[in-house]
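batch job 7 of whatever, protein = UvrABC system protein C
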Amino acid sequence: MNDTTAVDPDAEGAQPALDTPARALLERIPQSPGVYRMLDADATVLYVGKAKNLKRRVSSYFSRALTRRLQVMVSQIADIEVTVTRTEGEALLLESNLIKSLRPRFNVLLRDDKSYPFIYLSTQDDFPRLAFYRGPRKSKGRLFGPYPSAWAVRETLQLLQKLFPVRQCEDSFFNNRSRPCLQYQIKRCSGPCVGLVSPEAYAEDVAHTIQFLDGRAEDVIADLGRGMEQAAAALEFERAAVLRDQIATLSRIQQRQYVSGEGGDLDIIACAQEGGTSCVQVFFIRAGRNLGNKAFFPKTPEDTDDATLLAGFLAQFYADKQIPPELVASVEPEERALLETALSQRAERRVHIKWRVRAERARWLEMARGNAEVALKSRLGSQAGYGRRIEALRDVLDLPERPQRMECFDISHTQGERTVASCVVFDGEGPRKSDYRRFNIEGITPGDDYAALHQALTRRYTRVKQGEYPIPDILFIDGGRGQIRAVGDALQELGLAGLQVVGISKGPDRRPGTELLWLLDVESPLILASDSPAMHLIEQIRDEAHRFAITGHRQRRAKARTTSTLEGLAGIGPRRRQRLLKQFGGIRGLARAGVEDIACVDGIGRQLAQQIYDAFHEEATGP
């Protein structure tokens, strides 16, 4: 258990740090390892740090020459809180968690909005499936990755479909087939759903898939080569030709994806800084293959050097991610040995951080540095343009200061079916995807966008009033005068009147660039030039809300349409379901069948047949 001690500057014998030589303030801080938090007069956390000796580390802020950044921070300290830990390594882990949750102004802050995607193989199934996966790690099945982007996962899945016809369909689709689908026709699946491949042959394709994803492509090529020779000897020339093409495709992929001279798992990390902006570039190497790279732009205080930047980045980045056994960095991170210990403790195996490398790794590190510099220059250019668009928006709406948070809502449905509302958030730097939310709309008249908006806003801004999210400076709505009125009613009910609300509707000819802007309680629309920077920003926010809404709606609609009525019935397992679908040629044929016809199927008695009949006809007559 950690013991938390608050050092109260107003307690007896203590005064605020700025008014005393800090002796009273530091009096009760123990000489133990732990984490300290610097707070201002409003109890806002300014800085989180860790120390092997808390008293010595905290005292150093008041007894030595400080950089300009630290002078500004110390001048605002009104209180100090400490948490005692057992070891310095434990303090480092706690520090990284607190920085991610509290986001103090004077710390290096990594804005990492989402988990990384994996390739998932359901090895627990008789006929395993391959799939895109993002989320917490499960105990069942195997995960391969992580991959730096969803695109990298989907590209790999497409390659695997061409190499080894392992199914990639959902279980609900697989379990309800009575004949092979299009994937079988184009030779991207071997048809296990209808018994067109033996379990042994399918297991061989699964084994080759695992070998490939584990980085053992040479073993796969050797196995395929032996199979080709055996097929040719048995005069099975058609199969031999298929294996030959697989070997050729694998060889091309291997040449393109493998890192020359590398093997195993490692990450290559390089940083670049300019103009108060920092970039960290990470290359992901798994099983000797380069899975791609990703750029991060952590917030850094002034005067942060590369060693401090990388130390803060590594501690936060690997707080909730898989850690490879080796990290290659462009500079030695601050307190490298301690960081290695903490990461090893988290990974439950030894983790090495290297920065002096030669040969192939040195060339890859140089490439990572170059990519970091290119990404940084691009970011600086886009930030300048984004800043100009925000200033233009401020002028157009006559706001007292530059908006720091903007939210936009949109509604998506298909003729009223499975309505979804989206809420996207933009701040001073661009999209803040970690704050995006979707709302499944229920209990309204299908197609009533006004009621859908009212429900979504009520659900969102009830939480805003409870302090879960900050109040936005501007609320955008994809819609015109009617939608704006619905929004105004919802906000008034919540006691949030006075919020700046802007509706975005299509122009008379519905062409892009002719949008009309509607303001709450203003009868006439505001019309901006198509080349207005403010209009460009509004369109960007509106289009992002539309994209997020329609994606959520399509996912919800697809899930509803691929769920079979049979799956919810007790006593209907995969085998009985398969017999029913084969007997009647699919769900539609089964839905038209009578009780007597259903009862004739092997394994289906009269009572179960009645339940199946009732399930289909209740669904047909229900609301």
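notes: The first strand starts at residue 3 and ends at 7.
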